[in-house]
Prior knowledge:
The chain has helices at residues 7-39, 51-61, 67-74, 78-82, 84-95, 128-140, 145-178; strands at 107-111, 123-127. By secondary structure, the chain is mainly alpha-helical.
Amino acid sequence: MATQFDPNNAQNLVERCRERRFAVKAVEHAQTYWNLLEKVNPRELKLTKIDDEIFEHAMKEFPELAENNYEKLVVIDEDWMKSESGKKRWRDFIQKYEKTVKDYNFGSLIRTDARQEYSETNTIFVTRIQFYVYEIARNRLGLNDKAHEIAKEEAAKEKEKAEKEKARAEREKAKKKKN
């Protein structure tokens, strides 16, 4: 070997690669979900085979999610979730889905405010089952209706932009052909 091999750095490199793959999967999941919100009325969207069970269980275990007109569902209270008692309650809740929900504890990105799109300032990292709890509830209760409209508007703007770009490219091509 031409250079000195440091196993500690090698381990750090492996961990960074794992973290990067983990982050890529979380971002892909968020993009897929946003695309679903664009195409499907959220009130009709089914995220798992056991949406009913997850919704009912969450509302029973976390009654505060239904308080104040679902305030904690509209805007996630990260401090509440990550408090000592919150962590314990969520940990107990999450473990109940170990055998029934695929990737139940896999990391997912979630919008902290249901009325806005994914962004750097409107996103936190949660487990997949926490994602399901919030998004199933938001969908059923109509709290994602605004996000659905935003996603549809975004898609329409992107389509219009692509069509303009295509038309511009065709004009350029015709111009070159003419010359």
